[in-house]
Design a protein that fits this description.
Layout: H1 2-17, H2 19-23, H3 30-48, H4 60-84, H5 87-94, H6 97-104, H7 110-127, H8 136-161, H9 163-184, H10 193-221, H11 223-227, H12 232-243, H13 251-267
Family: Belongs to the EamA transporter family.
Transmembrane segments: 27-48, 60-81, 87-105, 112-132, 138-158, 163-185, 197-216, 228-245, 251-268
Biased composition (Basic and acidic residues): 274-291
């Protein structure tokens, strides 16, 4: 469990801290920019992976679901949402993602649900809320749904293809789809030095590293408990802004950080329905549920035989 928490917290921290880097791409074509980012990310993942399992036909729909809703669609809708709503409002709505993940998990626990609610409250305090007009609320809700789908669509397929397999194949699919759609919407543009740096950093650190760490966390913790760690994204974003001198640390922000931390502690507690190894009946210690995998299986590499898990 400790490895899962560490992986999920690191992934959330990386994504939150990358917000200023993403801002360097303002005005750059969205779809083709993502295509280049995911192409480089896929190349890095292919170098790291010892082998890449081939997806079956039943794996294609969830992989496409991750790409369309949680990757390409998420980023496009997020940009659109901020045109009709203040960033704080969008962030506050996205704070509902941990609650949705906790409620939609088949193995949800009371502690995960309570922790998610506390985390969401902390995110609202951190974001400060805000206003919206026109389709702002609808776009913010769609953005939140994309955040949720990025995890839920991957829960089943990551057990079959492994952490690196899912991260790599989604990047490959996102590259192809983004390149095709971007050719007709937005077009291609040669990035300047600043934009090229941003794309490279997002591809290597946020895509290749953070994607793998996040799916590793979902494997270990389940989607319900891993979801509370989403609250660390705005915390990391706040810390980055304070360090860069772009924002001051206020009392409300400090309370928000404390609330998110409390929610994470509550949400990561072991549920009462979840037996420990010492109390599990003989012969049931190697079973799967909808969001967790045996901690000593090699599902992270696409198989299910007892062995050491290889972290991405």
């Amino acid at each position: 469990m400790k490895l899962g928490v560490a992986a999920g917290a690191t992934a959330a921290t990386i994504v939150g801290a990358s917000v200023p880097i993403t801002g360097m791409l303002e005005g750059y074509p969205v779809l083709t920019g993502q295509a280049m980012r995911y192409a480089l990310g896929a190349a890095v993942l292919l170098l790291v992976a010892r082998r890449l399992p081939m997806p079956s036909w039943r794996d294609i729909p969830p992989l496409l679901g991750v790409v369309v809703t949680g990757m390409l669609g998420f980023n496009a809708v997020l940009i659109a949402a901020q045109q009709y709503a203040e960033p704080g409002f969008v962030a506050a709505v996205m704070g509902g993602a941990p609650i949705a993940l906790a409620l939609l998990s088949r193995q949800r626990t009371a502690s995960a649900v309570v922790g998610a609610v506390v985390v969401a409250a902390g995110i609202v305090l951190l974001s400060g809320g805000g206003s919206w007009h026109g389709p702002g609320l609808a776009l913010a809700l769609i953005t939140m749904a994309g955040e949720v789908c990025f995890t839920l669509f991957a829960v089943g397929v990551v057990r079959r293809l492994g952490v690196l397999g899912v991260a790599t194949w989604t990047c490959i699919l996102a590259t192809v789809i983004g390149a095709v759609l971007g050719t007709f919407v937005g077009g291609w543009q040669m990035p300047n030095a600043r934009q090229g740096f941003s794309l490279a950093l997002l591809a290597v650190v946020v895509t290749a590293l953070a994607f793998g760490l996040w799916y590793f966390a979902v494997n270990r913790l389940g989607s319900d408990r891993a979801g509370v760690l989403i609250g660390l994204m705005p915390v990391s974003g706040l810390a980055t802004s304070v360090l860069l001198g772009a924002q001051e640390l206020t009392l409300v922000s400090a309370i928000g950080v404390t609330t998110v931390a409390l929610g994470c502690v509550i949400g990561l507690r072991r549920g009462t329905h979840e037996p420990t190894a010492a109390h599990e009946p003989t012969g049931t210690r190697h079973t799967h549920d909808s969001g967790r995998v045996p901690p000593k299986s090699t599902i992270a590499n696409g198989s299910d035989t007892p062995a050491e898990v290889v972290a991405p």
